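Q: I'm writing a short explainer about Excreted virulence factor EspC, type VII ESX diderm for a general audience and would like to include a description of its predicted shape. Could you first generate the structure from this sequence?
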Amino acid sequence: MSLGVDPSELLRAAARYEDSARVVAKALDPLPETVRGGAATGTLAGILGRAAADVAGLVQTLGITAGMLNSCAEAYRDSDAGTAARIVTAWPDRGE
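A: Of course. Here's the predicted structure. Afterward I'll give you a sentence or two in plain language.
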């Protein structure tokens, strides 16, 4: 069994994850820096803080995934180059 991997597809997927991370990070922009909610201020600040932390975690996960896909693409590319070199060595040109 063989598995063909196109590194350019992995790079495209990584770019999509990076773009998604940027879009999700912008979701934090409209969150207020301060909350004035009277008696509910503490609760609202806690909710907003939790939302900000959750979004930040998602951005980090998307970024890590993009990095992993980039690393995989590089590893497959390096592996392909090594395999090609071994094939050339094993089956030298026979004048064809």
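A: For your explainer, you could say: The two ends are 29 Å apart (CA to CA).
Q: Perfect, that's easy to follow.
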